[in-house]
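Q: I'm writing up a methods section and want to include an example of the input and output format. Could you take the sequence below and give the corresponding predicted structure tokens, formatted cleanly so I can copy it straight into the document?
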Amino acid sequence: MKSPLEFLESTRDRIQQKLEAKFGPTTVVRGAGVQFKSKEKATLERIELKPPSTKEVLLKATCSLVSPGTERASYLDLPNTLGNFPRIPGYCFVGSVLMSGRGSSVQSADMVVAWAPHASLAVVPDEKVMRLPEDVPPERAVFTTIGAIALQGFRRAHPEPGESVAVLGAGLIGQLTLRLAAIAGAYPIIAIARTKQRLEAAMRSGADLTIATAEDPEALDKVGTDVVIELTGVPEAIGDAIRAVRPGGRIILVGSTRGVTEDPNLLTALHQKGAVLIGGHFATNPKSSTFPGYQWPMRGAEWGAVLNLIADGRLAVDDLITDRVEPPSIPQMYQQLAKEGDRSIGVLIRWDKPGDWTPQILTQSLTTSIVAKLQKQPEPAPAPIIPGPRAETPPLRIAMVGCGEIAVQNSKAIKAAPNTSIVHAMDLDIKLAKRLAALHEAPYTTNFEEVLANKEVETVFLAVPHHLHAPMAIQAMKAGKHVIVEKPMANNVADCEKMLEVAQQTGAILSVCYCQRYSPQLMRAKELIEKGAVGRILGTSITFGQVRNESYWTVGFTGRVKTDWRGSREKAGGGVLIMNLCHTLDYFRHLTGLEVKHIFAEYATLTHPVEVEDIVSATYQYEGGGIGTLCGSTHVVGARMDEERVWGSEGQIILRPILKFSSLRAVDGYSANRWHEVKNLPPPIERQIFVERFAEAIRAGKEPEVSGKDGLAVQRIIEAAYASAQKRQPIEVENFNNA
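A: Here is the clean output for your methods example:
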């Protein structure tokens, strides 16, 4: 008779297959966060979080901002700091989405601002997250939540241009409120604080006059402003506010009170002034604008307004950062913050440098821990599925040429990759170049020649209209630079061949940003295909459908760049086929390992006022006999169409919208003759993976995984499809050119 352990060992694989086929492996994410363990004791503690639930997101921190007044009060356990110890401080957070739960408004890899604590990772309700505009650097965006507190307090006063405003308190929220008052046209603006320590900063924030009450207490009686905004939370400060306001004026109480005033004449003074007292604490703000009497919900309107003001440069925040710290220095930072007379205004915590706090996504078999416990052995440490930093090599130095829509996504990927950096930015629109360069502390220009002359630049990443890919890539390679071009490689086969010829002559490495082959679904599907899940491939199908509004053809999705190239056949090379389905054609080549032999296609322009096609359909035969179909449109009303399949002699894989497969074989722990949904995939960071692997190829002196030859192969399929539609006959693809 078998022992319990022998029985478990003999059946473990079968149990694991069944459990993981249904539930997937267990997943946790490890990182670190700040805790106030007790009064005046701050520590950095390890934390473990589970993947987000419905309408939640899991965030990886880039930076967080200390709110000195609130956090100092909690650290010192002052009155009205709610909750027992340990306490978790912080609410000003910027980071990227590692995972998004069902129904979330943001997706994996999005940069977001969030109401979240000081930690390297956090799970946050969707209602406390907002996608970050592409041109706002994290160190500025992190002021959003605290800036929104200042803004909603200021708005409660309903100030008119030319009205006088006094701000009582010169901490971080006070400095932001002074700047908002200046933007709104208040005059004069008066900063009031107990001592002179922070009043110098108040003058930089737009104050016309400053008052230090400890040195000149009688000065308050001479102020007489239309509005007083109280931000200190000190109980006696409400008496100072009443003294400073004019008769019939407005007093806005924004600060969290730290005690009870003992002034017996407070109500009498308020009645004599006839002032209006308005509660303006951030907790009174509604989640939506339907709350009676308010029009500015915190996340949408307040956060959005602050971000727009920062993006436009009207609300300056850089000088409000008085210190930057990394996680190991956090305990000492709070000790300094608690000292009497500390002059800190904004303290920034950087979480994005590698360390023990760096988030790791870990997976573990459902059965491994059960067996380990019965054996009375320690459970094995789960293996990380996001690799840590690689061996030390100099980062590949890249210049971004073209700083419009897609360039912002690429620049974020380059910043996230451990082996790449941006050292120059170029665009004909100087504002776009400047905004992107600010994210990387790099120089910027409108002159391509200046980029090519920069010896720091090793690689040029071109994100320009299609017709400029070939001439600019050739110019860069002849200047000694490696080149990445956004998809497609060019807008015709002849230009692609010229690019490859120059790469061969100069020794430059050329790649095309066909990054979607690195999506989690496709990488996992390729593993299943290689392990025989579908057998010999018999067929593929691609259905793609979205809506392109008329504005897309002139300003794109975001409106960052005004141009007409997308609708021009000469400049774009085509429409939905070359712009969108080129990605799909690339990763189907990569998945199947098959080349298209010949193709028959039809295309038309039915709904958009442009020269390029907005609908295309094609049938093609692969080498080896398999048949593929493709259908795409940019005018599909309602839910988008997005379905892709690969099938063969042994099974079928559905790639999108959800990765599923069924096989006659038991593959990779999954049972045969059943449909399996593949779950617990890592977050999609395909652009980051693409640039990482390109940089590795450069450093190794080898051809990248996505080569110029791949770009040419895709272009041959596209151009053969266009020729087929024009000639209304099948076209051979293998040696196709435009001669």
